[in-house]
Amino acid sequence: MCGIVGVISKSPVNQLIYDALLLLQHRGQDAAGIVTMQGTKCFMHKARGMVRDVFRTRNMRALPGNVGLGQVRYPTAGNAYSEEEAQPFYVNAPFGIVLVHNGNLTNAHALKSELVDKDRRHINTESDTEVLINILAHELSNAATGAKLTPDVIFAAVAAVHKRIKGSYAVVALIAGHGLLAFRDPFGIRPLIYGTAETPDGSSVIVASESVALEGTGHQVARDVQPGEALFIDLEGQVHARQCAENPTLNPCMFEYVYLARPDSVIDGISVYQARLNMGETLAQRLISTMPPSDIDVVIPIPESSRPSAMQLAQKIGKPYREGFVKNRYVGRTFIMPGQSVRKKSVRQKLNAIGVEFKGRNVLLVDDSIVRGTTSKEIVQMAREAGANKVYMASAAPPVKYPNVYGIDMPTPEELIASGRTMEEIRDFIGADALIYQDVDAMKRVVGKLNGKVASFEASCFDGRYITGDVSVEDFSTMREQRRSQQTEEDDPARSRLALQNTGD
Question: How far apart are CA 376 and CA 384, in angstroms?
Answer without folding.
Answer: 12
